[in-house]
Design goal:
By secondary structure, the protein is an alpha+beta fold. It has two helices and four strands; from the N terminus they run αββαββ. Strand 3 and strand 4 form a beta hairpin.
Length: about 100
């Protein structure tokens, strides 16, 4: 990370996109927001995208009550598959999915 302007600009809420990984995570977030899914924020639950890059999947989680998370994960999966992403359940977390970028 360098000081100054982020190489890939800014995402939603002026989130700096310093790396290709940041840019790609923002693309996942953008697809979900465009489909009407809500990102986690102060006072409400929603999706969270973390990790990823260089062949490692992103982790997409729903930060909400378990009952709501199950329903939301189904929606997240449908949206991202339609956008060309590869999706698999996270074997270590039943409230998360692994997301690979489109080929």
């Amino acid at each position: 990370m360098s000081q100054g302007k982020p190489e890939f600009g800014y995402g939603e809420g002026r989130r700096p996109l310093w790396t290709a990984c940041d840019r790609d995570a923002e693309a996942v977030r953008k697809a979900l927001r465009k489909a009407g899914r809500r990102e986690f924020g102060q006072g409400h639950g929603g999706f969270v995208v973390e990790g990823g890059g260089e062949g490692v999947p992103f982790l997409l989680a729903c930060a909400n009550d378990a009952e709501i998370s199950v329903q939301e994960l189904v929606q997240y999966e449908a949206v991202l598959i339609k956008a060309g992403y590869r999706i698999e359940p996270d074997p270590g977390d039943d409230q998360a999915l692994q997301v690979w970028l489109p080929s």
